[in-house]
Write the structure tokens for this entry.
Amino acid sequence: MADLPTGVPMRLEPLVTRILAPNASAYTYTGTQSYLVGDTDVAVIDPGPDDPAHLAALRAAIAGRAVRAILVTHHHRDHSPASRPLAVATGAPIMGAAAFEPEDGGARADAAFDPDYRPDRVMAEGEQVAGAGWTLTAIATPGHTSNHLCFALEPTGALFSGDHVMGWATSVVSPPDGDMGAYMASLEKLLGRDDRVYYPGHGDAVDTPQRLVRGMLGHRKQREGQILRLLREAEQAVPAMVGRMYAGIDPRLRGAAERSVLAHLYDLRGRGLVIDHPRGKEETWRIAA
């Protein structure tokens, strides 16, 4: 996967072609993966960043075919900005995740919001878009973001999982838009499906999706257990917990780890298991009495 060239169309199966964007980073792995779905006409899933080279690669892969829809799984700037110039170039509608305006001014630890994302059509659970020989169904999977969608390619058993389930790492869940309780519920939802393969926004295709999702659920429950054990020892702040929980973490990812721990704490607080205690500029947490 690390040697995959950017901008080169790769046919993954008869109706699915992948094009890698040149935006590799600590948060995007080798880059954002855009997908073309279809043969005689196509949908584009997650067109990626507004990068001229990537847009040229997408247009070359489309090769003059009709584009029925530009589908966006969520509103992060490594997934949605190219939707606008691609819509101008192809005349296709932008569809999928709802637009979102952060209430906290946009303070984030993972990929930043795309403030200009405005879909022509918001898709709800079960809504579909179709072309010649293919149908894509929206699957609501909030958690990584409040508006995250996956898209199921009917009836092949392929699921485009965006950043909800990735092929290289677990998703960052960053409040207030990210919600750990919703994320866990969305994982449980996917566990109840019988998809054959996941095509994620980042990383390799997942050919044992149910096993991976079970592992992700177990990992999050393990993190929750770590947090509760630490708070039983003493009241403490998130940075101190991260220092204990993520030994040896890449310093570039420490902020993301702190956001995910905070998401767990908000979920635990909502369930009445922990209490937050503001102490000047630093918030501490303790076990609920």
Notes: The two ends are 49 Å apart (CA to CA). Residues 69 and 93 are 5 Å apart (CA to CA). Confidence is low (pLDDT under 50) at residues 105-111.
